[in-house]
Design goal:
513 residues, alpha/beta, Beta-lactamase, D-tyrosyl-trna(Tyr) Deacylase, Chain: A, 3 domains, five-stranded antiparallel beta sheet, 29% helix
Length: 513
């Protein structure tokens, strides 16, 4: 017996309210019903896929209403989570920093103002705002000019001391250094657009007659462009920053416009170059060079910009799986709790939060999941997902998770092309995770009877193409779950396979997936 699509939608609507209001409950021992037995049989069949023969698979499904464990295999095994790590980082940030938390960026006067001249240094001080755009630095420069400053006799000091000087995660792969998803972490940074990929620049190429035209977003002379590309009959172009330098080399052929997101070598130097250029535009001349250092005590504030609150930042962070947001929030937590804007301090905050909420198997090496030394068990992830349901910030956090099958980019996020036209579409709220040989999906789904469920699926060490369709099949089966009705689900699930990529959708710019 199957439920109608209308009843499925109604059940999902009822459960959506339940997700936002029902507290977590302790486990209740119940005899497995026929529906649970069917679910176990179906998930086992899905996991018997030949692609997983040599792989490791851990899966946990729990009832959020009763705490009952409905399915479990290798629930306690430590596996690589990839971007499921962001579940822990984002939840700890919501708890520690609060949803109203904002990142201020300020301009300070470290000298005396005589007429239109500032006899001393001008300081640009950041606290890690990953949403700063070139236009925001321009607005700060305009405020400095409006304050009557036309000449700075000293230096432009870039104060990024809110965080430490360690820019890259200790476990990150060296060949990711120029990739925008592994950009340097700094208290002063800039993003090229409203995806807020801080620490990167968009480099665009297009055929212009018999030459290849190169442009950047934002416009900047910070990068040195070496254009070796030629106009051709097809676009086969490589845009790559050379290791430990500002030089971007472009090779290959260009027929159609193409763009690439490129990480800068030094986020602080890049951001301060944007600000210095904006000062010049607004008629503020700085005689001295740009240097890094701490603002002196007693420096007076000339201008200030504040980011959107964390409640809003969670949307691009979680929907698009933004690594840089995760690492900045990690260091921000460390700064708030211990006065140290370091990975070590921030990861201790996130780990302590997880353990305080019942998580047992946890090894956090970064905030984003880019490290292959991160380790969680499916049971630990399910425990976190259960515990946070009782938090006052849960509704905002839950709504920031990607939503299966919703094509709107800032709703569906990394799940926008998955599980479309299935009972899971518009129902599953979950975090994706992807590295080579690693995929994970953990979150919430409402059953066919309106019962809220929690699940974690972690697949490691596969050598095939991405088995994300296996995750989708399990999630769809959970959306069809009924304790009382028999569901002929597996044949339908075979039609739900997706051509999902090996990496997060957001990591494959500019392609949509």
């Amino acid at each position: 017996m199957r439920r109608t699509s209308a009843s499925l939608v109604a059940g999902a609507l009822v459960a959506a309210v339940a997700w936002a209001s029902s507290p977590s409950t302790s486990a209740i021992a119940l005899e497995p019903s026929a529906g649970v037995a069917d679910l176990t049989q179906d998930i086992n069949k899905i996991l018997s896929d030949s692609r997983l023969t040599i792989a490791r698979a851990g899966v946990v499904v729990k009832s959020a209403a009763t705490g009952e464990e409905l399915y479990s295999t290798d629930a306690g095994k430590q596996l690589i989570p990839a971007s499921n790590t962001k579940l822990f980082t984002s939840a700890a940030a919501a708890e520690t920093l609060g949803l109203d938390y904002r990142f201020p960026t300020t301009v300070l006067s470290a000298g005396r103002k005589i007429g239109s001249a500032l006899t001393g240094d001008l300081v640009l001080r950041g606290t890690g705002d990953p949403t700063m755009l070139a236009e925001d630095y321009d607005a700060l420069a305009a405020k400095v000019a409006a304050a009557g400053v036309k000449l700075v006799t000293g230096k432009l000091v870039a104060d990024d001391t809110w965080f430490d000087s360690t820019r890259l995660g200790s476990d990150w792969a060296w060949d990711d250094e120029t990739a925008y998803y592994a950009a340097p972490i700094s208290a002063l940074t800039a993003a090229p657009d409203r995806d807020y990929d801080a620490g990167s620049v968009i480099v665009s190429v297009a055929a212009d007659g018999d030459k290849v035209k190169v442009s950047t977003t934002p416009e900047t002379d910070y990068l040195k462009i070496v254009n070796k590309a030629t106009v051709g009959s097809s676009t086969d172009v490589l845009i790559e920053r050379q290791h430990n330098s500002r030089t971007v080399v472009i090779t290959g052929t260009v027929a159609d416009p193409y763009q690439e997101w490129v990480a800068v070598d030094d986020a602080t130097a890049y951001a301060s170059s944007l600000f210095r250029k904006a000062l010049d535009k607004h008629g503020v001349r700085v005689l001295g060079p740009t240097v890094t250092g701490a603002a002196p005590s007693g420096a007076a504030e000339l201008a200030k910009h504040e980011s959107m609150p964390l409640s809003e930042l969670l949307v691009p962070f979680l929907k698009l799986s933004n690594n840089i947001h995760a690492e900045i929030l990690t260091k921000a937590m460390g700064r708030k709790v211990s006065g140290q804007g370091t990975w070590a301090a921030g990861l201790k905050v996130a780990t302590d939060f997880a353990k305080a909420n019942g998580v047992q198997v946890i090894n956090m090496r970064d905030g984003s999941g880019l490290s292959r030394r991160d380790g969680f068990s499916p049971g630990s992830i399910a425990q976190l997902l259960t515990a946070v349901r009782g938090k006052p910030w849960f509704k905002t956090w839950y709504e920031a998770l990607p939503v299966a099958g919703n094509a709107e980019r800032f709703v569906g996020g990394t799940l926008r092309s998955r599980m479309r036209n299935t009972p899971a579409a518009g129902n599953v709220h979950a975090k994706t995770g992807s590295l080579t040989g690693v995929t994970s999906l953990s979150g919430y789904v409402t059953s066919a009877e309106g019962e809220p469920l929690i699940f974690s699926i972690m697949l490691n060490q596969f050598l095939s193409g991405s088995p994300k369709d296996i995750e989708d099949k399990i999630a769809i089966r959970l959306a069809q779950f009924s304790r009382t009705a028999t569901v002929d689900a597996v044949p339908q699930l075979r039609q739900a396979a997706t051509d999902a990529p090996d990496l997060e959708c957001s990591w494959l710019k500019p392609a949509e997936c």
